[in-house]
Amino acid sequence: MKEHYPSALRLLVCFCPFQHDAACRVIARLKKERDESRALLALAERQIPASMAGVAPAAVVSNGKRAMEDEIGPDGKKIRPGINPVMIDELTECNTMLSAQRKKRQS
């Protein structure tokens, strides 16, 4: 085999079965974890009392629209989910700091 094939090809042919075996083991582990999670979820769903399953969350109904009670702020305005300006400032500062650290490591 040494005479007919270059060393890189021989290395690839020797390495591929091990890589395939490792990939198969990872897939088997993930399938096992998925099945265990599904079984736990099914068990949890069965343990929920039947009386709790039919109860809807407390909601305010107006003009045919549902709005959760906690979505209305103290001033009576609807609270819209999202990132407030304080969070944006904190994220921008963190981004600047981390970018500077990365630039130092690269140079």
UniProtKB/TrEMBL annotation:
Question: How does this chain assemble?
Answer: Homotetramer.
The alphabetical list of record keywords is:
DNA damage, DNA repair, mRNA processing, mRNA splicing, Nucleus, Spliceosome, Transferase, Ubl conjugation pathway
Q: Species name for this entry? A: Triticum turgidum subsp. durum (Durum wheat)
- Say which enzyme class the record assigns: transferase
Give me any GO biological process, just one. protein K63-linked ubiquitination
Where does it mainly reside?
nucleus
As for what it does, the entry says: Ubiquitin-protein ligase which is mainly involved pre-mRNA splicing and DNA repair. Required for pre-mRNA splicing as component of the spliceosome.
Q: Which Pfam families match?
A: Prp19
Q: Which GO terms describe its cellular component?
A: cytoplasm; Prp19 complex; U2-type catalytic step 1 spliceosome
Question: Record's family?
Answer: Belongs to the WD repeat PRP19 family.
Q: List the pathway annotation.
A: Protein modification; protein ubiquitination
Task: Tell me what this protein is called.
Answer: Pre-mRNA-processing factor 19
Which catalytic reaction applies to this protein? S-ubiquitinyl-[E2 ubiquitin-conjugating enzyme]-L-cysteine + [acceptor protein]-L-lysine = [E2 ubiquitin-conjugating enzyme]-L-cysteine + N(6)-ubiquitinyl-[acceptor protein]-L-lysine
> Where can this protein be found?
Nucleus
Gene Ontology MF, one: ubiquitin protein ligase activity
Tell me the ranges covered by the Prp19 coiled-coil region domain, including all copies.
18-41
Q: What is its EC number?
A: 2.3.2.27
